[in-house]
Design a protein that fits this description.
By secondary structure, this protein is α+β, with helices and mostly antiparallel strands. The chain is built from 4 helices and 14 strands. It has 2 domains: 47 residues, no CATH class; 153 residues, Glucose Permease (Domain IIA). It is elongated, with a radius of gyration of 18 Å.
């Protein structure tokens, strides 16, 4: 129960939490009203960087959600040209994370990371279609245990200003393992082949737990 109310936080959050606490103490010294705003901001910072444990299905027949948020796209598209897959057809699911969602990202499947590619870019609203092509983003090309290409793309949003990658080329991942996070509002795209989608637009997802697709 304690961990549900006060979940652990990602290491990226400690410095922001310290800064918000210091600012809150300064504001309290001048004004109770401003101090209250600072307290609320500190609570929000804590929960933004929360990193709760998740129950992973551990089944290669499924893809799990890489992010908490809302499904905004389920479609068939060309693969991302950035990792050389533009001549192949993929299904794509996009999950939008608002500033109240947990922003720690997880791998949808077990497998091996074949390539990680960072692309600088703009900071448009992550829910826009052009965000997949224009915004700052990070690509993970993963080969699942059946040899399928699974691409996870972290996309920075309007407020986000840093994509954090915690994964290395050649690394072997277990389904639902943490791969990184995006700070302050963003989106993840999942490109996949040989799976059928299980979610629809508007559905809420939980990173590592919600089943996105099935073989």
């Amino acid at each position: 129960m304690f961990n549900k109310i006060f979940p652990p936080i990602h290491t990226e959050g400690y410095k922001f939490l310290v800064i918000s606490v210091i600012v809150t103490l300064v504001l309290l010294a001048f004004s109770g009203f401003l101090g209250t705003i600072g307290i609320l901001l500190t609570i929000w910072v804590y929960y933004f960087f929360r990193d709760p444990e998740r129950i992973i299905i551990g089944d290669d027949n499924y893809l799990v959600s890489p992010a908490d948020g809302e499904v905004i796209k389920v479609e068939e598209v060309d693969g991302p040209k950035e990792v050389g897959l533009e001549n192949q057809k993929f299904k794509k699911i996009s999950v939008f994370m608002n500033v109240f969602d947990c922003h720690v990202n997880r791998t949808p499947c077990s497998g091996t990371v074949e390539e990680i590619l960072y692309k600088p870019g703009k900071f448009l609203n992550a829910s826009f279609d052009k965000a997949s092509e224009d915004n700052e983003r990070n690509y993970y090309k993963i080969k699942d245990n059946a040899g399928n290409n699974i691409i996870v793309v972290q996309i920075a949003g309007l407020i986000a200003r840093r994509i954090v990658c915690e994964t290395n080329n050649g690394q072997t991942l277990n389904q639902g393992e943490r791969i990184g996070m995006i700070r302050f509002g963003s989106r993840t795209d999942v490109y996949y082949e040989n799976y059928d989608p299980l979610v629809k637009v508007g559905q809420k997802t939980i990173s590592g737990e919600t089943l996105l697709a099935k073989k």
